[in-house]
Amino acid sequence: MQPIREVLLFLFLAIFSKATGMKSCYNSRATVLSDGSSYCLSWRLAVEANNVRAWRTVPTRCLRYVESYMIDGQYDRDVELIVEQILSYVNQIVLSNNGMDAWILDVDDTCISNVFYYRGKRYGCDPYDPSGFRAWALKGGCPGIPAVVGLFNTLVDDGFKVILVTGRDEETFGQITRDNLHNQGFYGYDRLIMRTAADKGKSAVVYKSEIRKQLMEEGYTIWGNVGDQWSDLQGECPGNRTFKLPNPMYFVP
Ligand SMILES: [Mg+2]
Fold this sequence. Notes:
The chain is an alpha/beta fold and about 250 residues long. It has a domain at about 75-245: Rossmann fold (3-Layer(aba) Sandwich), CATH 3.40.50. It is about 50% helix and about 10% strand. InterPro entries: Acid_phosphat_B-like, Acid_phosphatase_pln, APS1/VSP, HAD-like_sf, HAD_sf.
């Protein structure tokens, strides 16, 4: 009996939607499936949950989906919701006020955005291009991510020592990164830690773990750690709480 009931329901919905001019659930579902966004939503969710790992490019069929996600508002809403969660956690923290209450923020696609660079790389459908990214970063024109600029200022005002930790190397990108951060409203942080010659070749997890371990040995309490990559948040001394920002455009191992 079940298939007959489903056919009758479908016919009823089709007639009803025709009569009322409404788009039926069946029609919108078919549209979602035919344009591939259903697959791409699943892909993005799997990427964000770290179920898909070490991926090199966005599936070509998801180009329009990722483009729309990044620039039509959903990315911003997702970041805003995460920042709301961070702030509700921050409000529960009782600071020691000994100058050692630290908070770690990643830089690229956490504080400042590379979405305009990735627009030219088909939002990650094209493979990673080190020289292209280098040229982009050296322009120092990455816009601040608005919700994170607000978070940063709240953390500084509340008395956290905000420590920015980035995989960018000091020699090539030191001054331009400081300038870019400053012109996007990131000032008043405690330190900006970048890769030195000694960090060359280290994976992001190893490099960032070593820095956090060093900070804890110096006596810092790492209350929170925010990044757009899992490699910002994994390894040793990750912080009392970690927060993963969305990034469906690239994966840093
Ligand atoms: Mg990043």
